[in-house]
Specification:
Helices cover 68% and strands 0% of the residues. By secondary structure, the chain is mainly α. The protein is elongated and about 40 Å long.
């Protein structure tokens, strides 16, 4: 590791994405951890992080990417009817994953 290089950058450069994501979580860098988990298709690991951020539309998309449609539907059911922007993002996630009925 070179001087000034972040340990997470070092781990990513060496293909240790899961370890980098875990360290990002420890640092409170949840969005960074989500991005790292997505790079190695660990979508299910990223779902609780998106929920912790309060980003249910992202959690829903990650659930679909993980193949967990039941969890995605559960997350969608928790979005209030008056949260139009969040509902639109959830509908977009469903539609983008080939689920027009749920959208």
């Amino acid at each position: 590791m070179t001087e000034g290089q972040d340990i997470i950058e070092y781990l990513v450069a060496h293909g240790a994405y899961v370890e980098a994501a875990r360290l990002s979580v420890e640092r409170g860098e949840l969005r960074r951890a989500i991005q790292l988990y997505e790079r190695v298709w660990r979508f299910a690991d990223a779902v609780p992080l998106a929920l912790a951020l309060g980003d249910r539309a992202l959690a829903l998309r990650l659930s679909l990417d993980a193949g967990d449609a039941a969890r995605a539907n559960e997350i969608a059911a928790g979005i209030p009817d008056d949260a139009r922007a969040e509902l639109a993002a959830a509908a977009s996630a469903f539609a983008g994953r080939g689920r027009p009925f749920e959208a």
